[in-house]
């Protein structure tokens, strides 16, 4: 069982929160930036629209589906957003801060049901889904080609996704003397290349990200039990000898944090678990009208002296 850290009334406690959901334009895989959009804003006020979301992120390819719930939409609006693979973007933040992107993906399904006095529209979405099912590659790389170049070339075959060199960090080494060839689904080619050359890839908020097995993205976020938003922490144990490989963390959600980023944890109840970790998977749960504004993280300890 996770031990709860000491709670503190500080600016890190999320009051006055905002969530903005944008649908469109068109399908995510088309990569269009112009067209008709529908937007819903939730700000925690009596007049505001209630929006809740549970978002899954991972370093490894495609995560589990995320779910967004929007309360009391009109019938016409509910019918208008039933289109499959429509692009959806969710941003979140506090009333006095900029909004940060929490999720971008494609709607896989939409349904509405009555819950007491409310009609709740539930959207199930996946990041990059339309692109991943459509991406096809046929490539050959000669001996000595940087693995990062090969990975970016494969990623560029995912329609609608943004591919930037700065998102391919810690992807080291070169293609071997026999070269490397692949033909088939792009996502499978990226996975094969990553397994052979020591990196993980995923789609994060409309961008393809690849990081080396011993690399962390971005500057670290600090979590602690005094005023840094840490709620609980427990060890992750593996193998017959139950050796600690990392931690499971529950904390207040920090807008902008994502899989692959590093976190520095300082626990007052479990000092031995304090350390720097890389986020492997995370589940984000946000709601501007309840206590839900948290993230559940599975992380592995960052090896000393490595980057």
Automatic annotation (TrEMBL):
Pfam families, per database record: E217_GP41
Tree of life domain: Bacteria
InterPro entries: E217_GP41
Protein's name according to its UniProt entry: Uncharacterized protein
Organism in which the protein naturally occurs: Bilophila wadsworthia (strain 3_1_6)
């Amino acid at each position: 069982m996770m031990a709860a850290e000491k709670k503190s009334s500080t600016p890190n406690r999320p009051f006055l929160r905002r969530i903005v959901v944008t649908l469109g334009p068109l399908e995510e895989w088309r990569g269009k930036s112009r067209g008709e959009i529908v937007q819903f804003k939730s700000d925690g006020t009596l007049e505001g629209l209630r929006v809740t979301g549970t978002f899954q992120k991972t370093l490894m390819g495609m995560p589990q589906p995320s779910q967004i719930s929007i309360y009391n939409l009109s019938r016409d609006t509910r019918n208008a957003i039933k289109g499959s693979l429509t692009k959806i973007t969710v941003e979140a933040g506090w009333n006095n801060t900029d909004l940060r992107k929490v999720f971008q993906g494609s709607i896989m399904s939409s349904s509405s049901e009555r819950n007491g006095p409310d009609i709740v529209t539930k959207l199930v979405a996946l990041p990059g889904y339309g692109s991943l099912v459509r991406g096809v590659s046929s490539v050959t790389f000669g001996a000595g080609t940087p693995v990062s170049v090969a990975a970016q070339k494969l990623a560029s075959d995912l329609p609608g996704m943004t591919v930037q060199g700065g998102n391919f960090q810690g992807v080291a080494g070169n293609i071997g003397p026999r070269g490397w060839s692949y033909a088939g689904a792009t996502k499978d080619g990226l996975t094969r290349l990553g397994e052979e050359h020591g990196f993980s890839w995923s789609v994060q908020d409309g961008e393809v990200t690849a990081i080396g097995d011993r690399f962390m993205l971005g500057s670290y976020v600090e979590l602690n039990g005094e005023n840094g938003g840490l709620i609980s922490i427990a060890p992750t144990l593996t193998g017959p000898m139950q050796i600690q490989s990392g931690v499971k963390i529950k904390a207040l959600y920090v807008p902008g944090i994502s899989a692959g980023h590093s976190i520095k944890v300082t626990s007052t109840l479990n000092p031995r678990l304090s350390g720097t970790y890389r986020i492997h998977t995370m589940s984000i749960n946000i709601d501007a009208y309840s206590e839900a504004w948290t993230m559940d993280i599975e992380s592995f300890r960052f090896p000393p002296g490595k980057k």
